[in-house]
Amino acid sequence: MPELPEVETTRRGIAPMLHNRVPRQVVVRQVKLRWPVPVTALQGWCGAPIEQVWRRGKWLGLSSDHGHVLIHLGMSGCLRIVPADCPVQAHDHVDVVLDHGKVLRYTDPRRFGAWLFTATDPLHHPRLRHLGPEPLSAAFTSEWLARQCSRSRRAIKALIMDSRVVVGVGNIYATEALFRAGIHPARGANTLSKRAVSRLVAEIQAVLAAAIEQGGTTLQDFTRPDGHPGYFAQALQVYGRAGQPCPRCGTLLHQQQIAQRSSVFCPVCQPL
After folding, report:
1. What is the pLDDT of residue 62?
2. Does 3 qualify as catalytic in the annotation?
3. C-alpha angle with apex 198: 187 to 150, nearest 5 degrees?
4. pLDDT by residue (tens digit) across 223-253?
5. Pick the catalytic residue: 24, 111, 248, 261?
6. CA-based nearest residue to 34, from 130, 119, 108
7. Known active-site residue 157
8. Considering 21, 55, 56, 58, which one is annotated as catalytic?
9. Is 87 a catalytic residue?
């Protein structure tokens, strides 16, 4: 699943080609995504320049005077800028035809993504209004996370993957941040010291920032808008490496299910 760095990479890739461009038409070939695509509303959104391409958590937004389109990439979605005459493939579900002869094309083999619309403040939309702070913003502090931890007996990995606590920390980056912070993913959130919480906040921010800088992790279903995969996977230390030696101490990495997600950790460097 594309995580926050992949979504931010997508935003940065498409934004220069969309800013101040006028959508002339929205072509919807498949209305059955995660939620029904609001075809009529999207058609009404056309005709005004796109003023902003933004991101909130794993949601992308296209804003103009005519309203706001909200896009989620789901499990396998991607957005690309292609020529208007680019042949349509089987899983190309939505096109935004722009005034400069290009098309914003949404491809999603598994169809777990979403295209929604709102004419009002998008941050108050039901899908966005309950989201927690952005992990790379000033609002995500060790004080904030410590308060959330003190109220929860959940595994710390489950807590930091809760979008009400902090947005965009998916399985890959939660696994990596916890390893770098030396915290076992199954440890109860309310047992962490303030120092451990502070270390975890710093590592979450560091791993996400590095992934964004390097273009996002290469996932089976994700490619960047320019057609090239991200390559942060080369820097992953533990995710997907169960049974291999720990890069710090050489102990074989373990794997277990935590909050219904596969979690890899070092039993020595991340003691429970």
Report:
1. 98
2. yes
3. 50
4. 556 655 554 665 789 999 999 999 999 999 9
5. 261
6. 108
7. no
8. 58
9. no
